[in-house]
Amino acid sequence: MKFGKKTAFVGLVAASALVFAGCAGGDVVEEGSDGGSSDGEMYIAMVSKGFQHQFWQAVKTGAEERADELGVKITFEGPAAETEIASQLEMLTAAIDKNPDAIAYAALDPEACVAPLEQAKSKDIPVVYFDAPCNGEVGLSLSATDSNVAGALAADHMAELIGGEGQVAIVGHSQINSTGVDRRDGFVDQMEAEYPDIEIVDIQYGDGDHLKSADIAKTMIAAYPDLKGIYGTNEGSAIGVVNAVNELNLEKGKITIVGFDSGAAQINAIKDGTMAGAITQDPIGIGAQVVQAAYDAANGESVDEFYDTGSYWYDASNIDDEKIAAVLYE
Length: 330
Hints:
The protein is α/β, with parallel strands linked by helices. The chain contains ten helices and twelve strands.
């Protein structure tokens, strides 16, 4: 199955096999298990992009909660960093070898995962994606945020905050992963279409790493003294920008910072005025939806090609609203 432009190229990173048991959700199969349960209970193997950001912990929570509701066992693994593609592929191969009833995968590299997933197909293991898909024809479904729409939403709020004119820059987290590409392109395309007096002067990539993103932001601020705003495309990127302006001792609000995702650090930065606002996803919803899709696929039921789990703007004015609070994660 091929996915549309907004989800066509994506990949998944895996580095250190992190499998978690005993959380509030469904049963989690311990690493080293052969996958299938002796009592006939369904087993779904999940391979995530990582586990270092609070976003992935929230996805795991949603997955475990739905697994508990459905009475299925899951494993949830992810690398230490979203640059560890080889490690993630090792995790994926190991998951396939366990012969699960279904595999849920979030791709770091959309091409590198094609061959392993063809092996899953040859073993009649249904594959569904979450957050970002693999290229090729194997996956049945994607549960994710429409990242183009989310990027455009970030652009609209940035434009409003800086008065519809001036220079802005982007600190992205990936040029390969579909989430990084689409959040960037959604922002850029919306600016070009709707805000001709706003110039995007620089786009650089920090791999979602706080330190690298902070260094990039400092370089941008030094190179463009009239810079009005910086957009960070994920949790690590945005916090890197926040750290940069704090380390430079800039007045709060001098650089308008628009982020993506949630987490305690971004929430605190919004509350103290360092960050203007951010786009949040529904990671718990993503985790729940992909487990549901995997369960349905394993039972031979039809699944939708794309489940859009939504994106939302939050700032100091609405951060405590019930609807927003439900999709924030700390």
